Amino acid sequence: MTEFYMRAMNAAYPHKNLAFRKMHGAGNDFxxxxxxxxxxxxxxxxxxxxxxRHRGVGFDQLAEIRSDGDGIALDFWNSDGTRAGAxxxxxxxxxxxxxxxxxxxxxxxxxERGKLIAEMRGEEVWVNMGPPVLDWAxxxxxxxxxxxxxxxxxxxxAVGMGNPHAVFFVDDVETVDVAGxxxxxxxxxxxxxxxxxxFAQVRARNDIRMRVWERGTGITLACGSGACATAVAxxxxxxxxxxxxxxxxxxxxxxxxxxDGVWMTGPVASVFEASLSAEFLASI
Length: 284
Prior knowledge:
The protein has helices at 3-12, 44-51, 88-102, 178-186, 224-236, 278-282, and strands at residues 18-25, 28-34, 61-68, 71-78, 83-84, 106-111, 114-121, 124-128, 157-160, 164-169, 196-204, 207-214, 218-220, 243-248, 251-258, 261-265, 269-276. It is an alpha+beta fold. It has a 17-stranded mixed beta sheet that branches. Residues 1-13 have low confidence and may be disordered.
């Protein structure tokens, strides 16, 4: 390795390599980087480079773990390098990882959403994603409207879960043009920070089929905050109970809207551990 190359590598990125873990929750896949014990390392260019499924690793979201007193803090990025305020499935995956590491049954996690509580109940990790945001200005929306009946074709519901969500209830979710409609609604002027878009088919009061378009990422196999928003929207519309199972493209999630917030559980998988090469980091 030439001296010039070493100088270029160090100027572009201060680490010779960077360890990460690949995980997924119901097919919603993540790169997890542990920055405890040091400064935050993830930047927008780094997140975008890792998120490239052809030239990087690929992910729906990236989660960076940081120390936060007795608990941990999580920061989230979308694959286009933009920040995400919440990521329910990544939160569950990281909670599972840390609770096994610490042999703990509870964990406090600080996110942009606030402090979230995770609990190990038997083999299931439940995360309280907090109360839904049901004020138009905080979702946020561009102007005051009826959140249960947005003035858009399809009559969607707006719910904030750390991210903005627009939930459409449809007769047959399998026939919905998720990519076409999702990309259109994501950038609608009503959503100044863009929005995630969920399409939900209620099959019973405790059973929903959902597909999702995530802002900054596109179609994903699951979306934890989207599942929370869909559960809230279904109950507020009088279509479902407060506890529901939601079938997503990648599996099942269970949601339980309690007085203290929306609790969520579902499958967790740790796929592999690896390191980003010096050559890759130097190219960013």
